[in-house]
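Late entry, arginine complex.
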Amino acid sequence: MTDYRKIIFEHIKGVLPELDVSDIQQSENFCDYCVPCFKYAKILRKAPAMIANEFAAKLTVPGVQVSALNGYLNFTIERAERVKSVFERNEFLPLAGKTVCIDYSSVNIAKPFHIGHLMTTVIGGALYKIYKSLGANVVGINHLGDFGTQFGGLISAYRRWGDEARLNERGLDELLELYVKFHNEEEKNPDLAAEARGWSKKIEEGDSYAVGLFDKFKSITLEQAKKVYNRLNIEFDSYLGESFYVDKVSKVEDKLKAKGLLKLSDGAEIVDVGDDMPPAIIRRSDGASLYVARDLAAAYYRKDTYDFDKCLYVVASHQALHFKQLFKVLELMGEPWANDMVHVSYGMVSVEGMSLSTRKGNVLFLSDVLDAAVAKAASIINERNEKLDNKKEVSESVGVGAVVFDALYDGRLKDKNFSLDSALNFDGETGPYVQYTHARCRSVLSKAGNADIDGIDYDMLTGDSAYEVIKLLSDFDSVTLDAAIKYEPSFVSRRLVKICQAFNRFYNAEKIMCGGAEQSARLALTRAVADTLKKGLSLVLLDAPERM
Ligand code: ARG
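Prediction complete; structure with ligand written out below:
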């Protein structure tokens, strides 16, 4: 597909001073793109309207009309040119050769995979697909929370009250109960804390019994998480967790010492990171390394192993200070790549109509939310299309997709109140709406015999309702690139909804099976819509059922 913003930029960048691609704005009225000339008034000492008029007379961009209005330079792409661009797809791989590490989901061992993990998992998972589609080499990292004294507590709880058969049967539920029980008992019996410390020390020392139990807890947790990842179309390339970095912290300490950055404060090792933040604590006085220290070791490991161009951390906003400290330490160390580290943060999620406190304690399991969505999807689908063949599979795709799409529909920093009803509204701005529109396109194409469509007469698609669709398809790739640059999968999901709305207006306004060259062109447009929706859905982790 042709990116007209770039084409315009290439043609005018030498003429307009200090022009940035982002100065070329998408416009809904009067034209396709525009450049406001107000910022040039100061530089050129002329009125914006005059500047716009002068530039409009000077600039030529092939296939694009240039005009001026009220201080804006307006660019209107010749319709047939733009139609052609949609059907002349060339591969768009602007990030080829770049390596991006994405740290996301990062579950904690023996902790429930709850609704709070939804955002990191789907934002990270979608960014993974988005970067990959743009040609980048992507490394998906699940930085497991597999280190800490709590695991010692879990071992003592298991030894006191646990049972192997029950653990095998109940898995994570059993671990959670043991964990809660241990905490309650610990308040009454102070000996328990010492016992727990003893076990966590044994894990660290590699004691085979303690490590064996811990590994079992780990595999129970991961088995559960992987079930959810499968449902969400999520993948990882690495599951190296915090424990992997424990013995790599000393190398970081050596580096910090060499730079004169490591200080002792009340027996603890710290790094001063400026007046606006508390110091980063590397090691406590009792010798235990801290979260930020293990993250420093992980950052070096990732740079050494993958030589990334960017390393993203998709983590809730309440860890903002942690990442600020982490990045600052790397900057103080003089690492040029400190600037390539990004904390991709996001807002809070609450869920409407589902109690946050379930039988399992004070948490709402992500899998329970997905199950509820699938059940609701199944009943809606049953009402709409009772005879559908693979109802079960489609309900899974639609129910899970509804939750994911909803999570990825607003800008990531906004807090969300999730509602099953609105996420599953087939007529709303939802996953099911996009999936349904895709299925509608496929059904039109299959009724037309899925015939090969070639030799399209581009002039047949310049009418208003078809052209609205064309416009939205023609820069889909650059929207995807913007999503990658801003770490904002919502750019993709929002564009998908717009394409569907425009296609449905076209579908209602024009008869597709009208015969002749017009029919071929309209079928070709339908296919282009279906293919773009399918690709876009996969970028935001959704399946695209052929029939619904
Ligand atoms: N497991 C951590 C938590 O649940 C998130 C880890 C994020 N990644 C990192 N490299 N610190 O809070």
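Residues 103, 106, 108, 143, 145, 295, 298, 313, 315 surround arginine (CB under 6 Å). Will revisit in the morning.
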